[in-house]
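Researcher: Here's my situation. A collaborator sent me these components and asked whether they could plausibly form a single complex. I don't have experimental data yet, so a predicted model of the whole assembly would be a useful starting point for our discussion.
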Amino acid sequence: MVDEKSVSASEPLDLIRLCLDEQIFVKLRGNREMTGKLHAYDSHCNIVLGDATETIYYLESGSEDVKSRKEKSELVFVRGDSVMSIADASNIGKTNA
Amino acid sequence: MSFFGFDPSGQPGHRKDGKLDLDSFQNFDDEMHSEEEDALNDETFGAAADNLSKDFDFSSGSGSKLSSKGGLKPAPAPIQPNAISYAQAANTTGNDSLRPMESLWNDQQQNSEVQSAQSQETEPEKKVFSLEEIEAKMRAQPPPSQLPQLPPPQQQFSPGMNPFMLPPQAQQQLLASAIASGRYPDMQTAARAVTQMLMAPPPMSQQGMMPQGMMPPPFMGYPVQPMGMGLPQQGLPQQGLPQQGLPQQGQIPQPIQQAPIQPENGETQRAQQHQSPLQTQEEQAAPAPEAPSVAQVQVSPPEERLDLNSFPTIEAASQTKSADSSSASSPRQPQQSHQLQQHQQGFHQQGYRGGNNYRGHHFYNQQQRQYQQRQQVENLNPEERSKYLARQEKVGKITRASGFMNPRDKDFITRIQLSQIVTDDPYNEDFYCQVYKVLNSSVEENSMNYLAKKYLEQSGHRLGGRSKRADIALQRMQQQVSKAVSVAKERGERSGVLSKEGALGKVSFGTGKRPRQLLVVNAENKENDENDLLPKEYKMYRSSRSVQLSSIESVYSEVLKLESRERENEGIDDSELWKSLQVSDGATAEDTVDPFVALLSFDKMMKVFTRVFPLLSAEHKIATIERIFSDLQKVDVVLKGSYKNYPQQNYEIPKDVRSRIELFQITVLKTLVLYLSDAPFALVLHLLDSIVKKNNVLFLCTTKIGLSLITVLISRLELIKQEFSKNLSAQDLSQWQQTYDSLFQCLEGRLVTVIPPYFSKDEQKSVKNGDSEGDDSYIWQFLASLSLAGLLDHQRIIVDEVRDEIFGAMAAAKKLKTEGNVERAEKYLNNLNLFLNVMGLKANEDDITELSDE
């Protein structure tokens, strides 16, 4: 139970709380990004995403272009230690879409 | 009982098998306990809390152990330091100090032989007594006869000088040296260890030698037995004694050995000098509290001879504590040991006061056991012996740090551990666990009991070993749990931070659920300042997304709060929730949409609506519905839900909008319909009125939600009207007629617009898209309810306007039937008949006939 004060962003994780049930954009270690609907999170930034799309960036040997491939999952648990940043997908804009 | 399953007060190694493995420690522990009267869990669970003096006894009763051995100890410092031959000391120690301690008692035995020989040389006319013998003698004499001896010596005491003043000094000294040895991380640990040392006997040094009858008075406590564990540590060369410990061992006994050579006592006791030490021990161990005090009394005379100089000053202490084992400091050793013993004597008395008989008995047993065991060891061949020693070493290692915590410490730790797993608010903090428990256990025990049991199982507290104690342990643990729960409740502030205004520091505590918070942002004054101090560019508008999101979160918080109150059958006050909903705030110039209606554009707000609504008071419910209805066309799903918005996309409503429309239907709409189905006529009429007057009805009717809602309202009104017409006032009825008329007027001539192109069966406007296969029954329901409430004229107009749709549907059904898709054809006809039946008509794929009661 959280009182009203903490809702108005009294701690950093409250920002994530605001994104519950919304589309979020998550930047991950290992050149990965994810977008999806935030179902749940905890204090370790473990998150559960619904209808998530993971974008993995990689370099192919010999070429300098960064390529990417996408993987979709209906429901995915992302362990918090790989999370670098979390943002409201609507703020990110459609550039990633 | 100890935290690691070991009894620090125990004397290991009494087992005959001589085998050593760690498993046997368990049994060993059991054996120990079987001899102790203490309940297994007494110390862990704080039974001892009522006895402070006992608590003070860190090594669980070693105080009384000591005192029971009081008689065995050398008279404290019957020494005249100057009488000691330092040369002798140096000689004897030089050899011994470097020898492996394994052979300790043998060496010492030789050693003491040498020494006693020496002392006989120096004072040949005197018979040599072991201190024990002397003391035994003393003890044997009735105290009163001894007392008269006291006064004269006391006069020799310099003012303010008496044995009882020494302990603090000695303690300090010890402490300092302990710290200097670097073995203890901090002052406190060292202090404890020293205390333990002082109170715990070094049994090996005593008992190992006693059987030989050549009693070199064992040096008690510190240098020989740094750990004071009551373990035979000297036997272990690798015990990790600080270096200074070894030489001292050799040196110290020496001076003390001079003790027996006191003229006064020596003579009186000569007769009994051959008394077996063991006997002495047994005699002394068994008797009750008087013994040590007697010993003390006996002991005092020699002290009196000390002049003031012989007592170490602080500097002397610090020199000694440097633990420098060089011969330079060795002269001081006697003093130190002297003090030590005095100090110990003081302790004995204290310990004895708190002690009781059974303890004395217990230690007597222990001693006897040790003695036997010692004899055994001596009988062992070298191989067995090294095995035995290895075992002792392991035991020593394991028990090295045991006994540092007293029962209260253990209590405290237990409580901390428990407080991490208990909560006073299980439904909110442990919701899933609670639900799981409800689902999975038919017979749920009382939760305290359950938790206590679980904890005991998990934490390795053995219940099985001493089964008779299991219930007690459980009870204790339950008490702990309830304590922890009450503490968790008292903790109050849910932020986990206690901060007093004006205080520099903050106390913050973490729990498993709420880790320690490092950043504490002061949120108290925020609300006042927010509006005044924030620069304009940082002010958030109510319509901004983040403000809306945080409003929704506060709604959730309020809902959770109220629901938890509801579960506990407390009264519900929805004022906070009402405030967070912002229903009554109304739209301002800044935002175009009412804040509450704006919130409804979020999925999560729709989801929570089903939970919010029942929590609201009656008038708030009405106000909420009114707000939704009067702003219906601004509700996101309605606004975006009209097919007219998407002519470019073939009138197809985008997928995400469609899914949200569905969500709205099963959440908000369902809740509202449920409420309306019980609502009185006047209210429903009022609501319909507000829809018709404040919205663009034509637009609403192009949306699924608008159309469904109007359908519900009309049919509810019509139902009440037909069933309970008697109860309705003429005014209500005329009002209803007016409302209906105005609604109809809005639609008249444009009624076909309610049918989206993709559902239309009219050849001219029909469009095929993804929605075409959807369920269009809501449209026919609307038409049906509209005609139901209308007069014949209205019905005629309606039929006229949708005639093409009616025949289109019939044709489509016929076509489908010929194609073999009977099911779908039936569906078309059924939907059509929903409408036609109201007017007493019935359609099949070919014809429309009058409805007859078949």
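Model: Some features of this prediction you could bring to your collaborator: The beta strands of chain A are 23-28, 32-41, 47-59, 66-78, 83-88. Residues 10-89 of chain A form a domain with the SH3 type barrels. fold (CATH 2.30.30.100).
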